[in-house]
Design goal:
single chain, alpha/beta, Rossmann fold, 7-stranded parallel beta sheet, about 45% helix, about 15% strand
């Protein structure tokens, strides 16, 4: 198993992407510590992992609350002895489908402030423990909106937030690499299966049309899945990716080409 004897913290674990990564980590042998603002959702994922034979703990943590993040990570280290992997998948409160010339400052800044703040807090908290042990992996999350420079596509501050998260990832990688800590970012495309149960009111097209458009744009003629993200995260967190740091893993199925 890729992550046997590893301790991994997943923020936003009650969400679609966070849950998928948590399941993948547990399947690959990691002891997973799930954190999220809505405990019921986190515990639902924890229940699935436990039923499948995984080792899991869950906690209510607001990943935008500096003290809460530090307190939780301290408890994890106290309980498990060390932290090997940190992954942040919380929603960053983006407002899209509105041209910048019509968007309020608050709506534009919301994803930028949320995305950079939560990734700074969670990565920093994990890094402070990882550098003392001389090893660890921090994974961040952006999206294909980082390259959404297309007429008629309005991503508001979300694309800027993704650019900032990717830049923050590389800066952390440069600072932490000499201390044995790897830092990488996952960049998926929109994942249709993650939209289940999410209100799509106000979207520019029905979800089926959006999915079809993603397939048309993809070099592979397919959409990115939650399993794709989970499998990539597990590999990047493992020792098999030991020479990889400061990179953005393109999981867009070819809708974005680096």
């Amino acid at each position: 198993m890729l992550l046997e004897n590893k301790n991994a913290v997943i923020y936003g674990a009650g969400g679609a992407i966070g849950g998928a990564v948590a399941r993948a980590f547990a399947r690959e042998g990691a002891r997973v510590f799930l954190a999220g603002r809505t405990l019921a959702k986190v515990e639902a994922v924890a229940g699935e992992i436990s039923a499948a034979g995984g080792t899991v703990e869950s906690a209510e943590v607001d990943a935008l609350d500096e003290r809460a993040v530090e307190k939780h990570i301290g408890k994890v280290v106290e309980q498990a002895g060390r932290i090997d992997v940190s992954f942040n998948a919380i929603s960053i409160r983006d407002v899209q489908l509105t041209p910048l010339v019509e968007m309020s400052r608050e709506d534009f800044m919301s994803p930028i402030m949320t995305g950079t703040t939560t990734h700074l807090l969670t990565a920093r908290a994990a890094a402070r423990h990882m550098v003392t042990q001389g090893s660890g992996v921090i994974l961040t999350l952006s999206a294909s909106a980082v390259r959404a420079y297309v007429p008629g596509v309005y991503v508001g501050g979300f694309g800027v937030a993704c650019v900032a998260i990717e830049a923050l990832t590389k800066q952390f990688a440069a600072e932490l690499g000499p201390r044995g800590v790897r830092v990488n970012c996952l960049r998926p495309e929109g994942i249709p299966e993650s939209w289940e149960g999410v209100s799509t009111e106000g979207w520019s097209a029905p979800t089926e049309e959006v999915e079809a458009a993603l397939k048309d744009r993809s070099l592979l003629g397919r959409v990115t899945t939650l399993a794709d993200v989970g499998n990539a995260a597990a590999f990047m967190a493992s020792n098999r990716a030991g020479a990889m740091t400061g990179i953005v893993v393109n999981l867009t199925s070819g809708t974005v080409v680096d």
